[in-house]
Each structure stands twice: as structure tokens, then as C-alpha cells.
């Protein structure tokens, strides 16, 4: 399907009668055809309502201001938060990485193959190791070394913020082995997706594969979530697991887990790229 | 959620602008609140459109005739097929079975536990073996023996039709080891769901587990589908698989497969019970 | 395969050269044929060695003392722990249950169908509710009510121990909603398998489905493990998960999870019944 | 674990008493320690016996002739086929590819990361498109164009054979869109692994994703198998599936399936590299 003249309308409000009809009418009045509509109510009564509507509107660019004005009227009536995303405008993504390359390469590769609807505008790393691998894809690689102590960390984050602010719509931590400060996450001005190498909330924190081996679990997994100030506690976007046995060492679990990590992160980034993920408190709604 | 005063509206028509708005308006005019709405278009342009809407309408019984009249007006305008299902009216189900009990018991058991929203009104079998197991659940068991040759078959089907016609909304073949005639399927007056003990279209026909063993497959599966005149060719509702190894015999594959069969069939029947399954040519849309 | 004259030999010792040959020689000298042999070393060097050997020995009962004497010689040489299990002697199992019936029914039902190689000799419950359902299977149901306070608990455990000691080879907690005291677990004289309704170590403790919903996980699971004094910390035998979405309520997660629980518990009990599970510290080796 | 001085012994013979002991004794006599041992009998009685034994033997190179002579004696006694593979000698692999790159890239990438224990010595293609992508990995890319008609085909295969004979231990068809002639497969002198883009035996032949869409299946899959003269009928090494819905187009199924293909093929090649796969008639035993 051509992406021209299509857009995604996301809305969220307290559940109440008449929302679907009101939105559908506004769209119909402006000549927008509904390509798909997904909605979710958190409770049968008294809950929160979410809707994602993909529309096709010939001459979208010209019609957009009038459409937005009409949506705003409905939104005020229902107490709605809303946003309208032109599907032809791909999100600009910065990937943060340290030395592990599997998640990074999966994203670069899928993007190149047309399976990831984003623009990867830069890769930022605290190590120089992956520069060549990244530049092969025609993507800028920026090495911002860390250092020891809070001052070096502050300096590093300050340089990262200069680079990112206003320039990216999404930051992806593709096994970036540094903890971001709360201040950094607040000032970055874009959502941050992290991949954690365990099935959260199992094995929160460091060395999950070693701890999975020690605990003798029969499945290992990975979790993609929005990064928040609370480490490993942000809203979960996607998770998956794979079966393992007693015969696999911690190193083999890590290798097996790497395959889960890259697929889980790729799915999460793609869903975010398609405006399918709505944060609701500590959890997400995927529409 | 209380099921009182809720209903499910299914519609299908050629895709065209304004369907969602038109339906939502009719519902709003009659005071029906949309609890959930799922839709699917087979193509971006020129395809078929399907929608399932769950509504809440206080005083549904009294308001229903007027609502139906309004829906019919919209339906004529858009060339829609539609149906409105009161969620408080559970479907009446007859289960056909031979000697294998695993699928039968799963359905009886889930129904008893409140996990299957149907009324199981009778179990029909060509063997007497499972009579007591069925009657323990308070469900009538009717033994209609088969026989040899087409005349005996016709007599059996004639007795079955007497029992079923007008009395059931769904027939479930829970490993019923007899082939139904086309005539029977046409005259039965209700949809028929069959469980096939393979991942169709692999191993169409008899003895799939023996053939799976012989072929050395690494996964075995089961398929729930609507029965049509073409054996094993009806629209697929649900499928699943489980991993097997070379060390498992054909008998063990059969035992492992039985667990997949009963879960797949239970899901398919539950989805049908919730009016989630719409047949589209040889396939299904699950809303 | 006929189970007559077959046995399972389990051995565990520090890894060292020559174990497999020594054991195979003893077996060959006594005319025992190796039907299957599985082994595992925890490390390439300096680890622990485990082996499960299924043998066929015509006239097993008569030959057993001499065979055991020879095995003991080898065992002393290698510092081996070992046990020899006649496959014709099925383990005697007591199932503990409260009010939830899904895990209990799965075990009773599989046992009846010949898919669980144990004898279920009694079901013990602190509630009378499931008496009839159990007795339908010809299995004794013993109601030992609990009570309030440590004295009532001690009295209940005392009655349970009278019933169990010497009479059972395995106790299965099939969603038994009481915490066992350390003293009880020590004195029971048989291993205890528990089913926990989460993917441990995620959601250790009470109400895992509610907490899974609150945390917004995308998969829910179940864990079968040996019960130890540390609640939910015993060696894991089996785990599995199923995918869920934001649209499912905590009650639906519980219902979905119940299907995982019963399959996971049934697999764990069957593996234990086949002497496949060897405890190694906090984890298990499944041979 | 260091791979030095380790080897894998594969044996196959008619099942009979004493095999395990005889082999273990030979190994013990030569000072070889058994690191792992896996065996499989196709039937409890009268079947075929397979065993894979990983051994550690200090000074393997020097001791090998004597060890082989002793194994040969045992082999003659039991009518065994056997082979002994030095783990330090990695298999030389040629990858055949046309225009799709996903399976090729997965193999190159895993090999580079140390997750695929083979040497990729060349990539052969009937199209020039992927030359640069391959050479980036330091692997030779050989473009052997096809042509129209049987003579061009024979010329192409002749050039391929010149390149391969004596130079490779394994050929991998990584979505190579040409049919190999029986003659070519016979003369190539190395096993050939193919990836088929369906869950065989469902959708044998061309365009499986389009046919899966048309048939409305709920899972799509991929199959890695040894290529034989009968297209898509060779012994299956590995298979997997992924869940799909009615909302995915045939193109999306193809994209989703590509992820399954690359993981299935990578697992199959790795198992072959570790000498885990033994062909038994039309099926395989994975030890």
C-alpha cells in the first residue's frame, strides 16, 4: 500500500459513550477513509479508552490543518489526548551501543532490507569498536568516550544531549552497557527503548544469564521496554523466551539469548515506528 | 462484565468509505455504547470489509427491533451482510465422538469450569463406550450405531438429522472417526467444526501421526476447521504445533498430539461461541 | 515396549575418566542390555557427572541382588551415588489440593488414560469440595481440615504425616494453597513437587497473575519445582509460558495460566515418574 | 572448553547387546575420556542403533591411527558404520545463493561472531548482486551465471563442480532459486543442506507463502533438509513455525517467514557442523 496521504490518529481518554462515532464522523466529514481501527478499553466500566485509527485522506498535507481543528473540537468535548502521525514521515532514530553488536546489526540490517520503517540517523557509542561495521551501512558513528566518576559521566551525557536534542524522535539502547541518569532521560526529548537480556521481572539487574544458569530455569528470555528513571521498571513493549536445558553453559545461554534479544528489540522498535504502542501507567497497550 | 444487555454485531461488505462512521452513528442514535470494535479489510483498496462490534444497550430486548430496522437501512446502503447476537443467548452445541475421549473431555470439563461459553446439549456417538463419562457431566449421550454399507450410513445420518435439526447452533466433531456426507453437512442447518490431527495442509487424510513419524518432521500439530464437503479443506479456525524428536515413536507422537488437539479445538469452539470467526472464502478472519 | 525386566540405573559422581566403560561393563557382565543411556557433565573438567541408563535384563528380579553388588563395587571405586529403579514398580503418589481443581483433574485424567506412569493412591485436601470429583476416578479422598493458628496447623500436618509416611513415593502439591512447614517437608520421607503459577523467579509469592497484569508482561507462565524449606526456591523441573495481551484481564490471565499450569505439572510428574530428574544443587538435570 | 585433542565418534549398526560397553572399553583402553555420549535405538527390539560420543584424548593426532584400528575391530564385530571427526578441523562450507540475502547474511554474520563452527570458503551465485556484501566478510564470491536451456544449465553445473570437488565438506543452499540435477548432487561429493520456505510437507514446491495465505493457515514455517534427487523430500534436519493472522498479506508472511528461515537454517548448519545429524532413511536422528 502506498503510504502517501495516510496518517495514524492516536487517542486516549476516559471511557464514555459515543467516542467511536464522534471520531468516525469527524473523519468522514473531512473525506478521510478509515483503513484500520483498533481500540481498547481497560475496563468494562469506568476505565480508560485507547484508539488507533489509520486513515487515508487524498491531499492530506493541504487538508491537515482543518482536520486537526475538527479533531481538537472532539478532543475537548471528550477530554482526549490525541496525536496525528503522517505515515510518510519516518521517525529519526539514534542507536546507543557499547561493544555487543548483535542488536545493533539486526536493526541496521532490517532497516536496509526495508523491514524497519525508521531512519537510523546516527549510532552513538562509548567505545570505538563498531565504527566500521556501522559506517558500512552509510550511517554516522559517533564515538563519545565515557570516563571515570560522575564528572566524566556528566560530560559524556552533555555531549550526547547536544547531538540528540531536536535531531531524533527515538533513542534505542541496543545493549548499551551504561546507566542513563534521570536527568538525561528527562532532557533527551524523545522516548527511549531499552532491551534487557532477561524475561523481566525475572533477573532484574546485572548478569541475568549467569543467574538464570545458577537458578536452573528452563526458559530464557528478553524484554524490550521504555527506559524510565527506575532501571528495568519501564513499561514493557515486547518479550519472548526460548527453551534451554541443563546441558547449556551460561555462555551458551548468552549466545542463545542474543537471538531472542535481537528479535524482541526489532519487533518493539517496529511497533513503535508504526505508532502502535501506547503507554498506560506502568504497562503498554499495543494496537 | 455482566453479559446482560450486550450483543455482538457482525458485518461484512465490500470495502468503501464511511462504513465505520455509519455503523457507529446508528449505534449511538439508539443509545448503544461500543464496548469493543475490531475490523479487517482484506486489501488496501477494493477488498472485503469485516467488522465485529460488541455493544452495551440497556433494555436490549425491548430496543432490539428498532435497532435492527436501523441497521438494516445502513446494510442496504452499503450492501452489507450482518447479524446481531445477544451475548446472553449461549449457542447450543452437539458433540460427535467415536472412541477417543480426549477432545470430548476437554470440552465437557471446560464448559463445567465456565471456560467455554456454550451449552452442550448432547453428545452423539457411533459407539456406546463413552456414555457414562458423558452422563457424569449431566449431558445426554445418544448412541446411534453405524453399520456397513451406504444404506446403514444413510439410516444413521437420518437419525442424527432428526436429533439435530432445529436443536443445535453448532456441531463439533471431537475426533469423530466417520466421514460426513455432503448431503448431511448441507441439511444439518448449523456450522460444523472438526479437529484434524495434523498441521494442515501437511498430512491431509488418514494416519497423520504415522506419516509424520515416517517423514521425520520435527513438529507435530493439530488444526480446527469448519467441515465442508471437501474433507480437510474447510476454512481453518486455529492451528498449533509442538516440538518432537526422533526418539518419540508414532504412538508417543499421537499422545503428544492429543494435547495439542484438545487445546486447539477448545480455542476454536470458544472463538466461535464468541462470534469471533468470520468465514472468508477458504479462510477465516478472527476478530 | 514391555516394561517387564527393565530397570533404570541413576548414578551421580565427580567427573573422571572411565565411568561409562565401568558401568557398561558391569551391565554387560550380568547380561543386561542397554536400551538407552543419557549422561551429563556439568563442566568439561572438574565437574559433576550424571548418568541415566535404562536396561533390559531377563529375570531381573532373580538377578538383581548380584547386579546390585557389582554396581556397588563400581560405585565405591568412583565415589558414586546410585539407585536402581524397577520400571514395573510404579511410584505411589499422594496429591494435595485445596479448591482449584484444574491441576488435580489433569493428573487424574492422564493417569486414567495411561499417560501418567504412577499410581495415585490418595488425594488429601483441607477442603471437602472435590471429594466427589476425585472418588469418581476410584481414588480415595481424605479431608483433613486446617484451622487457625500454629496448633491447628501442627495437628493437621501430624494427621497428614500419619497418612503419608511409608505409604507414598511422591507428594504433588496441585495448587495446594497452604505453606508446608520445614519440619513437615523433612519428615514426609518422599520428594514433594509443587506447581507455582508464574514463571519463576518472576513473581515469587502470592497473586502472580494480578502482579503480572499490573506489570504489563507479555507472557505468563508456570513452574513445577521440588518443594524445599525456602518457598518458591526449590529446584525447577519444568517451566512454560503462553503469550498474552493488554486486552486480557487478571481473571483471564488466571484462566489462561491454568492451562499452562496443568501441562507443566503433568510433564514434571511424568518425568519424575520415569526417574529422569536429578537434583543438582538448586537446579535439576533432566535425562 | 578447548577443542584441542577432542573428537566425535559416530557409529550406526543394527541394535544388539554390548555395543555401548564395547565402544567404551576401546576408548578407555586408549586413554580417551568420554565427554558426552548420546545414543538412540529406533525400536525396543530389532531396530537400528546410533551413537555419538565426544572424547578427549591427549595427543589425539599421534594416537589416532592406533585408536582407529581398535575401533575398526569392534566395528567389524558389530557390523558398524563409523566415523571419527577431529573437532579442531572445521568443515569447509560453500554457500549457494541467488538474490535473497537473509539466509546468507545470517550465516556469514554468525560465523564472524563465532556462533557457527565452520569455515565459509566461498559463496557461489547465479547473480552478481551480493558480491560486495559477501566480500565485506572476507569471503570469496564467485559469480557463475546460469542461462537458458539444458546446455547452459549443464555448463553452469560443470563450472560449479570444478570449484567444489575436493574443496568443500558441505554445500548450503541459502535460498538458491535453481533446481540441482540428480547428477550434480551425486557428483558434488559433499552433503547439501537446503532451506525450504514452508513447514514441509505442507506447501511442497513453489510459492509457499502465497499458498499459505490462500489456504488461510495460522502458522507459517521453514524446513532445513538434506537435498536429494527428490525435491523437498530429503531428510529433515530442523523445522520451526511462527504464528500469523488474517491481517498479514502474503508479502508480510514472506517477511515474517524470512526470520524463521534464517534461524532454522543456522541451527541446521551448526548441528551438521557438530556432527550431530545422522541420516536414517528419509528422516534424521539429532544426537
Automatic annotation (TrEMBL), chains A, B, C, D:
The active site is at residue 232. Its EC number is 3.5.1.10. Keywords: Hydrolase, One-carbon metabolism, Purine biosynthesis. Residues 8-89 form the ACT domain. It catalyses: (6R)-10-formyltetrahydrofolate + H2O = (6S)-5,6,7,8-tetrahydrofolate + formate + H(+). Coiled coil: none annotated. The keyword ATP-binding does not apply. Gene3D superfamilies: 3.30.70.260, Formyl transferase, N-terminal domain (3.40.50.170). It comes from the Bacteria. InterPro entries: ACT-like_dom_sf, ACT_dom, Formyl-FH4-Hydrolase_C, Formyl_transf_N, Formyl_transf_N_sf, PurU, PurU_ACT. One of its GO terms (biological process) is 'de novo' IMP biosynthetic process. It is an enzyme of class 3 (hydrolase). One of its GO terms (molecular function) is formyltetrahydrofolate deformylase activity. Pathway: Purine metabolism; IMP biosynthesis via de novo pathway; formate from 10-formyl-5,6,7,8-tetrahydrofolate: step 1/1. Catalyzes the hydrolysis of 10-formyltetrahydrofolate (formyl-FH4) to formate and tetrahydrofolate (FH4). Belongs to the PurU family. HAMAP family: PurU. This is Formyltetrahydrofolate deformylase. The lineage of its organism: Bacteria, Bacillati, Actinomycetota, Actinomycetes, Micrococcales.
